[in-house]
Structures are given as structure tokens and as C-alpha cells.
Give the backbone structure.
Amino acid sequence: MTTLLKNGYLVDSMNNREGVFDVLIKDRFVSAVAANMDAPADRTVDCSGLTVIPGICDMHVHLRDPGQTHKEDFVTAGEAAVAGGVTAVMCMANTVPAVDSPERVRDIVKRAETSKVKIYPCAAVTVGQGGSELCDFEALKQAGAVAVSDDGKPVENARLMMEAMIRARLAGLKIISHCEDTDISGDGIMNEGAVSAKLGVNGISRTSENIMTMREICLANDLKAHIHIAHVSTKEAIKYINMAVNLGIMVTCETAPHYFTLTDEELLKKDADYRMNPPLREFDDVLEITKALCNDMFDCIVSDHAPHAEREKADFKTAPFGVTGLETLLPVTLTRLYHTGKLPVSKIVRMMCVNPRRILGIGGGGIEAGSAADIAVFDLNENWTVEPGKLRSKSKNTCFKGMRLKGRVKYTLVNGEVVYEDK
Ligand code: DOR
Ligand code: ZN
């Protein structure tokens, strides 16, 4: 089977190639990239006026399988992913039970075959994500884990995190930290500030995130080990990380679209669909996170896709943290960063397609002869409105509901097959 993507505007940041090109795909792989190719193909997709990029790798996704498939499963997550131009996801370990053994990693690798996208498991740092006993990282790696994280929770005990970072390095696994000091965040349900005071609810202080980010930087420095900081939401945390990077400390980091788009003012609606952890912060944070994105301080933009059922999100105060994001990741980023003139598409591609794969060591992220044909094609200028009911995820808890976006995925290919087409 051959497919020709004709006349698209290719943005391949990994190979520093940008311009109007044809991409010829033979079976699972890209066989040629050239201008005005005159190759016969079983299917020709007219990509004139569209942008062609490597499929996105979203390295922060909660897939909910096993244990909570009423929220999401491999199939629905795959449908949501491809509708967002995402062809690879790393799934977090906070399932029920947690992914803390080689058997559970293998189970995910096997069952994830039913999904339209490539799924890479992140295993837990501690047994049952209980924070007291480390998992067997070597065995997890052998079973197919690409990283370890207790995401959803921090590893509270610094001594244990030290040990974990050493063992992760020995096993050749990346370790990802959800930075939160739970003694400080306590039972807070949103950012601590003027808005939480006005609503009379307990807040999550920015100090909770900042202090843990600093701890991880100290550990990475002292151990000469690498740490990846998940979902950075405060203006201080990104400054600390940038300072660390400038000192040569091995820290990488990510943020998510809601942190450079929305503030805690949204919570005045008393709608739990705006509650996630870390929480939406303040205007200055949005400003500084955006600036940091422009100044190449972030390695990755991820969705932190965290689906929850409607009934679970019904009560503003007691609902679980989390928002869906696979389908809005690219469109929100294009709307907020590209269409405002802040970032070129090439940098967005770097943060969504190239860097996550480099950090996880899973290969891919470019479009050249020989590479797996995992590709997203989008219309930079198509306007649409986020209607939760029309999204493909099993859960509808998006904090972008009603938002007008500019940029829409038209085709997604995984292993050379058109697995999504916007009709
Ligand atoms: O908002 C969040 N939701 N933050 C997390 O760390 C966990 C996630 C979830 O699993 O729902
Ligand atoms: Zn987290």
C-alpha cells in the first residue's frame, strides 16, 4: 500500500526541513520526501494549504486502564489521540491497580495493541504508588516501561527519591516527578490566592510545587542524575528549572496548554472541569510560563489528559482533579502560541514531537525516508469551537469547553495507515 501526501507544508524540526513537499509512504514507512514527486500511489491525499508534521508524542496521559475504564480505555483514548494528531502516548502508572510490576507493564503493552496509537507505559516508582518501597526498575524496563513516575502523587520521602534516581539511572529509565509537597497542599482544591479566598475554599499554595521542584533539582545536582519535572504551573518553578539548566544540572520539564491559557479566575464558575493538580494559577504565572515557552525553557508540551466521568466531576469541591486534553493539545497551543505570533510551528513541533521521544528514548519524531510513517496533517487556519459532546474521549471534562480555537487536525497516520480523517 502506498500513500502520497501531496503539496503539504512540511515542518520537520528534527531534520531541519520546512517547506512544501510531497511525502511518499510505502506500507509502514516513509519512502521519500521531495518536492513535486511524480509517484504513483494507491491513495493520494491533497495536503495543499495544510501543514504536515510528525505525529505528536504526548508523554503525559492518564489512560485509566486497568481499573477505571468507565473513564477511558485504550480504544477511546486512541480515538481521542488521533483526533488530536497524537500518534504516541506515554500512559501514567496511577491506574487501579498501579503499574508497579513487570507483569502489569507487559499486560499494558499487550492490551494496548487494540489502540490506534502507540502506547508506551510509564511504571510506578514505588510499590502501589505507596511511597515506601521502590519497584524493581530493571524488571520494569525489561518488560517495556520507558520511564517511572508516581504521577498523581509525589514521592514524599527525599531519601527514597534519592535512591530511586540512582536506580533509574542504572536501569536506563527516565524518572518523572509530580512536584507537590502534600503537607503544604493539604486538602486544597484550587490555587491558593485571592480567588480561593473569595470562594472560601482551601487552596493549594504555589510553595507546594516550588519547594518540591527545588528538592528534585538538588537531588539531580548532587547525584549527577536526570529528572523530568511534570506539569510546571508556577512562575517560580520554571525560573528554578531554568537556573538549574544553566548550571548544567540534568533537568528537563514540561507544561500543559491550560497553564499558559487559563487562570484561577475560571474557578469562579464553581465548575470542577477547571480543577486539576497542579491547579490553574494566576495571571503572572500564565505570562511567565508563556514567556518561558518563547525562550526555549520548556522541553515539552503535554496534555496531562486526565479523564473523569461526568458524575465524578459533578460536585465542585469533592470532584477528583484532572482535565481531558488529547484532542485540544495542538489546537490550543496553535491558538495561544502560534496565532499570537509567539512561537513558530517548528518550535511547537520540537516540543510536541521531537523532545518527548528524545527524552523517553523511543525514536522517531521526524519525517524522512525510512522513518515510521506516524504523521499529523492539520489546517492552521480552521476555526472551531470546543463542544465536549463532540470530543472522542469517553470523558468530557475539558477546561476548554466553549473556547474558539484556530487550528484543526485533518488527517492522522500511524504506521502509514490513515487512522483519522476529519470529515
Ligand atoms: O489533575 C490531575 N489528575 N493531576 C494528577 O496529578 C493526576 C491526574 C489524574 O490521574 O486524574
Ligand atoms: Zn501529576
In short: The mean pLDDT is 98. Residues 151-152, 178, 230-231 surround zinc ion (ligand 2) (CB under 6 Å). The two ends are 22 Å apart (CA to CA). The CA atoms of residues 35 and 151 lie 44 Å apart.
